[in-house]
Amino acid sequence: MTAAIATPAQANAQTRYEVHRADLPLCCPLPSMALWNSHPRVYLPIAADGGESDCPYCGAHFVLVD
To answer: In the 8-state DSSP scheme, what is residue 18?
Structure first.
């Protein structure tokens, strides 16, 4: 019997991502994304910046939704 392996989401496939407080601390690429084909992981301040943050590497825009 083989175990199912989840395929990571493609990194930087979108320009806007909605994240929840459970996803904090926020990093880009997200943990569910494949890191090998993206930029180095960077942690982004989002709660202190009014609930929005942009990645300095790829420009992805993250919005905190409650």
So the answer is: E
Rounded-to-integer distance, Cα 15 and Cα 3, Å? 33
- Residue 5's DSSP bridge partners are none
CA–CA distance, 38 with 29 (Å, rounded to integer)? 7
Does residue 40 sit within a domain? yes
Q: Is residue 1 part of a domain?
A: no
- Whether the CB-CB separation of 8 and 32 falls below 8 Å is answered with yes
Q: Contact 19/34 with Cβ under 8 angstroms?
A: no
User: How does pLDDT run across 3-48, given as a tens digit for each residue?
Assistant: 555 665 666 667 899 999 998 999 999 888 877 778 899 999 997 6
Q: Are 19 and 64 in contact (CB under 8 A)?
A: yes
